[in-house]
């Protein structure tokens, strides 16, 4: 008796991704002996074609992006990546080449981040592809970075550069000139795993920037029961983003609220600035002070003259 | 600054489901201290509207079914349920009442099975709803039931009754007369959690029946490197399924290959039959011997005269 086609698909494309405990994806569930004495860190993010990515995004980068948006959540908690489960709902006529590319992207990032596939499900949908991934990592007990914990007087830091992902989407959809750097940042975010681990015991609060810097900083401020104020000119931009902004100053709101950054935004005591710089250097990523936390509520973005900028709605919303 | 609508949706409907370690669904990830000295058991299953359920299925039973198809995987491994993560991709115009019903179903089953929500993601899709759930459970090290392990001479057992889910789908779609029992079995499977735990150290191999008895028994046989032979008349049927089959003998293949049973099929040594019966009695579910494992390969289903039945393709396939 022949097996249904999905078994061949799983055996061909996904079984090679399976690691210890995955039981070759042939049992009903996976087995995992968690690292002794560590707290597990778990997150799940979904991506839908046409919403979270462009239908013609290369499947290789798509597989990697699916992993990386989840790894970014681990980075925000200061966790060490461990393994993942994944469910894919794919259009019935999906090409084998597409799946092969998607799996090749996963394989590349498994090697890069030291993780393996534990299990999952492969089903068909009559709609756009819908990809869901659950990531597992671990931290020392009590050590996880949290969103709550910033205090008035703490400084606001952000890793890497902001706005590239949002501008990359514009570049890929013809609303900005083509730009490989920006497109690459949209398609292949860099989860700040090493930095997150270096910030354990150092940052007072942290989260990843996925829905736009202003909105996500608002989460840190709200969790701390205080306000945050940043200078627009202090927000670190890549050279292509600076060039785009120089050509069109109206891009600033998009940069500050557009999302898809997958950088870390975090709070630290002013006296810890040298240690933050050292941690960032050790992690091989830039860290930039962009403002501070204050008594009050909400997020203010100041222009070069110190006047609050009026920004449109705070970030990406699905509903 | 107002938060996007999805935050209200999550706070209203999903945050009440969050348990210890979920950090009120307000951080980037959840924290879980795994039960010391236990092996974690993890599975992920997805359900798509129009594929895995009927678009007009009540949201309450849908939430419960999403949990239960995953719990059934834990049952198949003999695991104790612990917690879950969930991603939901929902059509943009989804009614709040629908989400409230869906969450109420999850809440009911959280109580029934002693689990809580750890985290997840809520996104929009332009296609049919796509629901993905990752379940976590635990077993004693080395104790998990596995698909491999049956030996020639072992007996084939199945829990509960077979075919109700597949016939329920027919009843719900007008291809059979309406039937509350069958419809209920399609919409609300009964994961055999207690039985699975009672079978640890007793069953030589086990899995859950989700893609049809014949196909899934084929997995057990293949994993064991042997054949399986069952008697069609020995397969346990509910009274409504027996009545439907009496009215239309052509329903037999649907019963044996239709899927959506979420029963356990397992192997045990003949001498262990009394212990199996005692385990099933302790778990409060029927267990029925339907055949045996033999040298060779494949699955044979015999009719009352002992002749092999010709069955159509072995089970549900997505691709």
TrEMBL record, chains A, B:
Family annotation (Pfam families): AIRS, AIRS_C
MF GO annotations: thiamine-phosphate kinase activity
Residue positions binding substrate: 52, 260, 316
EC main group: transferase
Binding site for Mg(2+) 5: 211
Catalytically driven reaction(s): thiamine phosphate + ATP = thiamine diphosphate + ADP
Superkingdom per UniProt: Bacteria
Binding positions (Mg(2+) 2): 45, 73
EC number from the UniProt entry: 2.7.4.16
Chain positions recorded as ATP binding sites: 120-121, 147, 210
PurM-like N-terminal domain: residues covered: 27-139
Binding positions (Mg(2+) 1): 45, 121
Pathway(s) this gene product operates in, as recorded in its UniProt entry: Cofactor biosynthesis; thiamine diphosphate biosynthesis; thiamine diphosphate from thiamine phosphate: step 1/1
Residue span(s) of domain PurM-like C-terminal: 151-301
Residue stretches in coiled coil: none
Entries under CDD domains matching the protein: ThiL (cd02194)
Binding annotation for Mg(2+) 3: 28, 73, 208
Protein keywords: ATP-binding, Kinase, Magnesium, Metal-binding, Nucleotide-binding, Thiamine biosynthesis, Transferase
Binding site for Mg(2+) 4: 28, 73
Transmembrane regions: none
Function: Catalyzes the ATP-dependent phosphorylation of thiamine-monophosphate (TMP) to form thiamine-pyrophosphate (TPP), the active form of vitamin B1.
Membership in a protein family: Belongs to the thiamine-monophosphate kinase family.
Comment field (misc): Reaction mechanism of ThiL seems to utilize a direct, inline transfer of the gamma-phosphate of ATP to TMP rather than a phosphorylated enzyme intermediate.
The protein's name in its UniProt record: Thiamine-monophosphate kinase
Underlying gene: thiL
């Amino acid at each position: 008796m022949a097996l249904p086609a999905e078994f061949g698909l799983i055996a061909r494309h996904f079984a090679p991704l399976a690691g210890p405990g995955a039981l070759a994806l042939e049992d009903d569930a996976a087995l995992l002996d968690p690292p002794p004495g560590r707290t597990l860190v778990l997150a799940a993010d979904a991506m839908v074609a046409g919403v979270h990515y462009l239908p013609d995004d290369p499947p290789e980068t798509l597989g990697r992006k699916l992993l990386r948006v989840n790894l970014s959540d681990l980075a925000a908690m200061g966790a060490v990546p461990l393994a993942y489960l994944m469910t894919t709902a794919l259009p019935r006529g999906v090409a084998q080449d597409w799946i092969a590319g998607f799996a090749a992207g996963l394989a590349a990032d498994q090697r890069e981040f030291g993780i393996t596939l534990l299990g999952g499900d492969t089903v068909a949908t009559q709609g756009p592809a819908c990809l869901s991934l659950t990531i597992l990592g671990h931290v020392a007990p009590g050590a996880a970075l949290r969103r709550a914990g910033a205090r008035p007087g703490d400084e606001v830091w952000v890793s890497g550069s902001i706005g590239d992902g949002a501008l990359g989407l514009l570049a890929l959809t013809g609303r900005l000139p083509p730009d490989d750097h920006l497109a690459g940042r949209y398609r292949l975010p860099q989860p700040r795993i090493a930095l997150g681990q270096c910030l354990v015991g150092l940052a007072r609060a942290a989260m990843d920037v996925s829905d736009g810097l202003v909105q996500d900083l608002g989460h840190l401020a709200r969790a701390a029961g205080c306000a945050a104020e940043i200078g627009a000119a202090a927000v670190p931009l890549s050279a292509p983003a600076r060039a785009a902004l120089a050509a069109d100053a109206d891009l600033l709101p998009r940069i500050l609220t557009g999302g898809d950054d997958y950088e870390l935004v975090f709070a630290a005591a002013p006296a810890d600035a040298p240690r933050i710089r050292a941690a960032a250097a050790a992690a091989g990523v830039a860290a930039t002070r962009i403002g501070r936390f204050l008594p009050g509520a909400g997020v203010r973005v100041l222009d070069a003259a110190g006047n609050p900028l009026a920004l449109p709605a705070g970030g990406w919303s699905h509903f």
